[in-house]
Amino acid sequence: MISIPPDVLAIALRVVLVGGGIYLAFCLLLWALQERMIFHPRPLTYPPFHPAADPVEIRNAGETLRGWIVNERSTGPLVVYFGGNAEEVSGNIPRWADFQATTVLVNYRGFGQSTGTPSERNLVADARAIVHWARQRHPDKPLVLFGMSLGSGVAALAAADTSPDALVIISPYRSVEHIARSRFPIFPIRWLLRHPFDAESVAASMPRTLAFASPSDLVIPFSESAAMVQSLGDRVEFHQYDLGHNAFLEHAPLWDEVREFLYPYTTRQRTHDDRRQPSQSSSVP
Predict the structure, then answer these.
(1) Which of 30, 65, 96, 176, CA to CA, is 20 to 30 A from 74?
(2) pLDDT tens digits for range 30-83
(3) CB–CB of 199/225 below 8 Å?
(4) Once rounded to an integer, what is the mean pLDDT over residues 147-158?
(5) Which CATH class is domain 39-265?
(6) 147 in helix, strand or coil?
(7) Rounded distance between C-alpha atoms, residue 23 and residue 217, angstroms
(8) Using CA atoms, how far apart are residues 72 and 52, in angstroms rounded to an integer?
(9) For residues 183-208, b (16+ Cβ closer than 10 Å) or e, as one string?
(10) Buried/exposed 215-237: b ≥16 CB within 10 Å, e otherwise
(11) How many CB atoms lie within 10 A of CB 161?
(12) What's the CA gap between 164 and 276, in Å, rounded?
């Protein structure tokens, strides 16, 4: 029988206790600081002045969401845009002003001049309210939800309850949980995470979808985007570019693909048969 000296046992116990304490401390930090890691609110630095943009205010659950509606008299579809986790959306007004669509750009809670505090529950509830507001304002236009990065999950979760005609997602992901687990594999992310943004859970209800991703994206891993695209089956048209995470909206070929994808919705009114028509040029990784 092997005999372990008491002093060795005491040292081993101290190592286990110290290591366990450090591990628990890191778990506590991840739990406590996750809002700072996921949401990076940006203020509105300069109010935009663009002839195609009109300011809007939408009230939901006691908060005021502020943004803009662009090209309200356009003959194109109605697009509701959801930005990234560090995006103040007014910077996109010139891009949408040149696009044949009526586009609604509203800042998340705590972003721009919108009041409140961001969270998954708040952002998804607000997204539904924004879509409802936009649809009431333009009931005959085909509805398209457009999400960038974090906004791709917001758009997907909102789509499950608002039945848009089409969806456009850039740097999509299955869930924030999947991304966090890849970065912090030794921690119990599922039990720590309060904002999972589980887009994959509603994949079966998503409409005709256009998706973009990049192998050079250092924020949303390409493998994560590809897995989300795969879950959409034949309802998705997928394109990949070699771009940095924040370069998608500056890439002209992307906008050419968006125009082609949305062309069926540019000159006609919405009908009940428009939703969930698969793309004729669908491809998945």
Answers:
(1) 65
(2) 999 999 999 999 999 999 999 999 999 999 999 999 999 999 999 999 999 999
(3) no
(4) 98
(5) alpha beta
(6) strand
(7) 30
(8) 8
(9) eeeebebeebbebbbbbbebbeebbb
(10) eebebbbbebbbbbbebbeebbb
(11) 14
(12) 9
Tokens of 20: 């366990």
Backbone phi and psi for residue 61, each to the nearest 5 degrees, phi listed first: 50, 40
208-213 vs 166-170, strand pairing mode: parallel
CB 161, CB 135: distance < 8 Å = no
DSSP state of 11: H
Instruction: Please name which of 254, 11, 224, 3 lies closest in space to residue 146, comparing C-alpha atoms.
Output: 254
Which tokens in the block code for residue 58?
């939408």
In eight-state DSSP terms, residue 246 is: G
SS3 123: helix
Provide the residue ranges of all domains of the chain, joining segments of one domain with +: 39-265
d(CA 101, CA 266): 7
The three-state secondary structure class of 192 is helix
119-150: burial string, b at 16+ Cβ within 10 Å, e else: bbebbbbbbbbbbebbbeebeebbbbbbbbbb
| Residue keyed to tokens 């040292």 | 11
Please give the Cα distance from 214 to 285 (Å, whole number).
12
Q: Show Cβ contacts of residue 64 under 8 Å, excluding neighbours closer than 6 positions.
A: 57, 58, 114, 115
Please state, as a whole number, how many other Cβ atoms lie within 10 Å of the Cβ of residue 163.
14
Cβ proximity of 98 and 252 under 8 Å = no
Give dist(CA 242, CA 159) in Å, integer. 28
